[in-house]
Amino acid sequence: MPQLTHLDRLEAESIHIIREVAAECENPVMLYSVGKDSAVMLHLAMKAFYPSRPPFPLMHVDTTWKFREMIEFRDRKAAEMGMDLIVHINEEGVRDGVGPFSHGSALHTDVMKTQALKQALDKYKFTAAFGGARRDEEKSRAKERIFSFRSAEHRWDPKRQRPEPWNLYNTRINQGESIRVFPLSNWTEPDIWQYIRRENIEIVPLYFAAERPVVNWNGVDIMVDDDRMPEELAATAVMKSVRFRTLGCYPLTGAVESTAATLDEIIQEMLLTSTSERQGRVIDVDQSASMEKKKQEGYF
Amino acid sequence: MRLTDDLIATDIAAYLEKHENKSLLRFITCGSVDDGKSTLIGRLLYDSKMIFEDQLAALESDSKKVGTQGENIDFALLVDGLAAEREQGITIDVAYRFFATDKRKFIVADTPGHEQYTRNMATGASTADVAILMVDARKGILTQTRRHSFITTLLGIRRLVLAVNKMDLVDYDETVFNDIVEDFYAFADELATDLEVQPIPMSALAGVNITSRSDETSWYDGPSLMEYLENVPVGDRRRSAPFRMPVQWVNRPNLDFRGFSGQIAAGTVKPGDRVKSMPSGRQSTIERIVTATGDLKEAIAGQSVTLTLADEIDASRGDVIVTADNPTEVSDQFQVRILWMNEAPLLPGRRYYLKIGAKTVMATVNAPKYGIDVNTLSDVPARTLEMNHIGVTTVSLDQAIPFDPYDENRELGGFILIDRMTNDTVGLGLIDFALRRASNIHWQAMDIDRDVLAEQKGQRPAVLWFTGLSGSGKSTIANALQKQLFALGKHTFTLDGDNVRHGLNRDLGFTDADRVENIRRVANVARLMSDAGLITLVSFISPFRAERQMARNLMADGEFIEVFVDTPLDVAEQRDVKGLYKKARSGEIKNFTGISSPYEAPKAPEIRINTVDRTPEDAAEEILGYLKEHGFLGS
Predict the structure, then answer these.
(1) Which residues in B503-586 belong to E strands, given as ranges?
(2) Measured between alpha carbons, how far is A185 from B94 in angstroms, rounded to an integer?
(3) To the nearest whole angstrom, how far is the Cα of B437 from the nearest Cα of chain A?
(4) CA atoms of A44 and A32, how far apart (whole Å)
(5) Which of A242, A300, B289, B397 supports an S-S bond with B332, CB 3.0-4.6 Å?
(6) What value of ipTM does the predicted structure carry?
(7) Segments in B310-442 forming alpha helices (H)
């Protein structure tokens, strides 16, 4: 008799979750951040409904500071998959010229990401939004449910989480409330990479090492991706063989020096490496327990 | 034990091939902080290299700042996640942890051990294959050990590790260990007959018998904890059970394809297998097992698949596809065990949503037969269930559903209860057995049915439900209306709060639970009267929306007419016909609606009556007009 491997079981659980949302929630959307976790989540959604298409659109909250390669990849992928893609930008933020170089990472992230996400969810009246977050990423995520409820003001209340016994999810909400659903909750970073390898899932080339122009900003190596970088900073650029372990706004995403140019080499590097994934992200290190606080304020 | 397989550096491709075929084990750890539970989990993560350098640096600095191990690493800090918890030094919820070895990936449900977290432990246990029960070697089997054993076996776990921790503090004394194990076996027999227990002496702090067997316990010849976790069978019972798949989603991309998508709850399935769709019982044959990467020759418990059938069968979400040889039972009444999970206690008689598999139905939960004391495992009397209490009771559903007893199948025997107003998940339930089989139920088909009875009286039956504060004028208006209807030759009856409480409901008081039961009985009597063809006038304060909704649901469509006698509190209190408000204000009467108990005004009543500056007769005329207009009074 065949045995299920750990990837088989994780896949089956995620598909179950995704189908449950499609069957019970009125107006779901899949948040697509263009990163590797999003790639896996989209792949699982395609599998869940085959031969039908997933009965919900993708949505990308575009801070306007994402790597250009991410945007190209996003548009091509959505078209290939035949998925509807909604792109939302906080136009007020654009009008005020908000950006990481001029306003700092905290304000930029709040305006262009957190506020933008709330705007988009309110605008389209989505009742459920899939996100690719995993419990192994951060301590407060370890205690978050797979179906995570948000008040009409998008706030998370850790004390009012609903119990989730077995695979039974209570999807009922009151007017104005919404749910964040995390189908990858039980995956770890090695699981994600191994699944990408097994299923041959295409990911943004930025994950693979290549010679790229980088500068050192606030102690982190970041890539020169366009001419909005202050000139004096851009002038310090040097070519290095680097890759990215997570993808976000290019000024806020630290590059790691690497020569890992294939999937196997990336996984090899990760298994031998000694720092955790989120360390390259500037937003987490602001203060202790910062993710928990951000979540309560409405960050995904 | 760490992931320091040489292959990672030398031949990554070979390493990855090997690791694609790991299995997955879910387990739960039970015990309080004092027993070293967090230390154990922290160590498992640490030893399997799930802690990176930056986390380790943070851990070292935290250990010095707030740790309890002096200059040593406090592994417990790794797993106490939320800021609130770190401040209070407690664990308030279920946390899920992950680690992997070369053989397996592990998902750990880390739950607190105190009695007030029984619900969290039950949630963690519901998906676990194995439970680790932490026992302090110095203290032996305690009340909480019994409680943890009971909850985990209640939720269906049949493989337990009795982790006798802190052996270093008793000098690794074999007799201490043996005595504890003997104590445990003495009561474990009562829990379940098919229980497999693995006792292990250990020290989480010193790392003894965690990843490999240690010299300190040379007298012990069993496995280390990790050896056990890596080798214990997974999912074997589920796979050998009869085939079950709840239909989660009907897959219809076009007219030529009709698939039933779901996650297989038990057993295996192959094309050509004879199956039934429950509850209808219609038979067919599996045609294909469709996945995005090609059809499968066989699928097994745990997989999410899409099945197509050889015949056009009208199955929908919530139905269950089962093997034809050994189908599920179908019923609408069950004996169940319920664990209550909400701060507001169970209200027997109230209707809740019940979700089981992919099906959601309405359920009435009856008063508990008895409760179970989780510490002594003995039966205790119970009228309701408070948070974290477990009781045995019966539920009746508004439709029959396919099921298996929980002890045979977790997915088809486990359910949650959802409050219809707050949408909170308020209870977790396990089906024991059906009280009757649905196939045996058939209502006595009467030749003289309700339509005939109503026609004979020249009217359409209706239930006029008068709700409003005490002294609002409900009974006065109902009386006036009944006189007018009588004058028109209509057949009526009035059910009044005061007279029903003297007879039918004299055993009930005024607590929330009793008010719910009061209304349930009255609503059922009103239903019988409308079946008899009568126009029934029900005059009850009925302060809760949920109960009025329950009454509405009970009646035939369009026959429930909610009449909201909308008299403001100050006006009603001024009238105070029976002198009750005065007594309520002085505290002589407790739970008095409007004063010390809430009144939930109707949001969309069929009729709203304003009584200020108006005679009862005038108000009755208005209601009469409504009845005429809607055809209740015949031609």
Answers:
(1) 535-539, 560-565
(2) 14
(3) 25
(4) 13
(5) B397
(6) 0.91
(7) 410-413
